Amino acid sequence: MIKIAVDCFGGDHSPLAQVDGSLAALEQFPDLSVILAGDEALIREALADKTYDESRLEILHAPEVVTCNEKPTDAIRLKKESSMMKSIRLLREDDTVAGIVSTGSTGALVAAATLRLGRLRNVIRPAFCPILPTMNGGIVGVCDSGANVDITPDYLQQYAVMGSLYLENVYGVKNPRVALLNIGTEAEKGDDLRKKAYELLSQTPGINFVGNMESRDLLSGKFDLVVCDGFSGNVLLKSTEGALLEMLGKLKRDIKSKLINKIGALFLYKMFADEKKFMDYQNYGGSVLLGTAKVVVKGHGSSKATAVTKCIEQAYRMELNSLTGKTEEALDAIFGAQETEE
Amino acid sequence: MIKIAVDCFGGDHSPLAQVDGSLAALEQFPDLSVILAGDEALIREALADKTYDESRLEILHAPEVVTCNEKPTDAIRLKKESSMMKSIRLLREDDTVAGIVSTGSTGALVAAATLRLGRLRNVIRPAFCPILPTMNGGIVGVCDSGANVDITPDYLQQYAVMGSLYLENVYGVKNPRVALLNIGTEAEKGDDLRKKAYELLSQTPGINFVGNMESRDLLSGKFDLVVCDGFSGNVLLKSTEGALLEMLGKLKRDIKSKLINKIGALFLYKMFADEKKFMDYQNYGGSVLLGTAKVVVKGHGSSKATAVTKCIEQAYRMELNSLTGKTEEALDAIFGAQETEE
């Protein structure tokens, strides 16, 4: 049995999206069990009239909620009775609970996971790895440090190792093609960080480093994993997403502006619906945190039930395929198995 | 009369695109004259059978060509007889020549312009400012340092001043809304560079700083000018362009995949043609270099005649509206009018 804690509060559609998403995940995976964390009365209300396997669902009562406006350190210190912090505490204390899915404050979740669950041996800093659809029907992961972090080449090396294992074990990508985000494809391109990272990645055993990637090729399907610093990762993801959404919006307005366009769009109704679905980030789950001692999946604050189910599936598959254990082994092979100092 | 040197070689469609583009610009602006730089025989061949005002066209014979594979410093040192270097030398020696349009090697052009023409007083480093179309029919400029440059907050401050004057004087944008590219909109977001730049921009007289911009809002039409470092500027522009092109490619494939889609697309033929034209960067001219003592416009290597005409128009309008003089004045007002040391 794989047991996942679901933080039912702190999202835009809490707790209904979390509860419904959890029930769908229970249907999908017979050896999954979930712990719904949050205000028990509200969770019971959301569960009312629904049928599910009661033996695989528990409730962890937590009356407080961490909001996005709180400082992460304040959330940890002052919101001990929140659904997020009680879930993390449970993960820390109970070996049978594999991981957490949360759609709450990113900063608080990262801080609590890093400080309370701890990092895997050798991990300098846990990294996020959101997944995007590529234009040829595949996926690409972007592994970065999250915002506000000054990184050195060895961070990027670790992201390459951790992200590769994630793609292999959760998405079945064989020998993932790893690229370094850079301003050009040639080996000598970029600043000092990029040049040194290129060299280090070229020498890292166990990964399939294929060189630099320019940001315009993110959705091309030529790469499975891109590693980068948090600032440019943020720019990369948000400008890609923004351009696609702005374009769809423009197409919509242009279609509405002329009768002949409206007629054409009737024929293309199904196609446009498919494009929209294809670009809906709800369908690609959450951004996992790699390098923490237990499984952590951060869903988007706007996640609906489908997205929550996807997040739970990610956490489930990470645990099913022993991702944390394999990650620690792979890092040991590179950096040695001595315990690092905190 | 405004005289512009056009480097006719080093582009993908040289010299025909440059020659035809120049002739179209001469038609458009009666007080423009052009100097076509490059192999005279080849330029004469491209000019054969064409009608134009011969009194406003000169040829500067230059037998060599700077290629993109050459190191910029080598190009300056070894390619003295190239169309690019001879144009720059002419600009340096002849006060009546206002600027240069080149579709050749970016690195060589920046190096030659900076070293041979010199920077305006107070300019730490010249900046590029490409222009993109926004989804509501306007434009947005992105002013950055170009790749490989470590910047400090005062660079970004200068970009804001120079870019604002460029948008006002060349595109008629009144009181341009200037934004700082960042990972979030709140003032305290980002790393040390962004926080300090935010503060500095807030205190800079003569600009209309409206705060941080997330990359997803680049095409929204809410901003006229975005300032950023060269690395994230590269990621911003290329991921925006890449996402749009990948999306158009996918739409095309999806339309071809089904008969009903093909029928719908017949009705939408004009609309799709318009979208394609709208996104064709050929229609938005080149990336100007701001902060050099004379006007410098860098067209894309793949520029065709239309794009070259646009580049010449940019150079023409920069000179017509005395952009370099106004830029120097604005920087003097902030930093003082003493000559800076080289």
Features:
342 residues; globular; homodimer; 12 helices
How would you describe this structure to a colleague?
Helices cover 46% and strands 17% of the residues of chain A. By secondary structure, chain A is of the alpha/beta class. A 7-stranded mixed beta sheet of chain A has the order 3-2-1-4-12-11-5, with helices on both faces. Chain A has a 5-stranded mixed beta sheet with strand order 6-7-10-8-9. Chain A is globular, with a radius of gyration of 21 Å. Chains A and B meet through α8, α9 and α10 of A and α8, α9 and α10 of B.
Q: Outline of this structure?
A:
Two copies of one chain form a homodimer. The first copy, chain A, is of the alpha/beta class. Chain A is built from twelve helices and twelve strands.
What's the tally of helices of chain A? Answer: 12
Class based on secondary structure composition and strand pairing of chain A: alpha/beta
Biggest pleated-sheet summary of chain A:
7 strands, mixed
Mean pLDDT of chain A: 93
Shape, per Cα inertia axes of chain A: globular
Helix content bin of chain A: 40-55%
Count interface residues per chain for the largest interface: A-B, 51 and 51 residues
Multimerization status: homodimer
Question: Uncertain spans of chain A, ≥5 residues at pLDDT below 50?
Answer: none
CA distance, first residue to last residue of chain A = 32 Å
How many DSSP E strands of chain A?
Answer: 12
Radius of gyration from the alpha-carbon trace of chain A, in angstroms: 21 Å
SSE ordering of chain A: EHEHEHHEHEEEHEHEEHHHEEHH
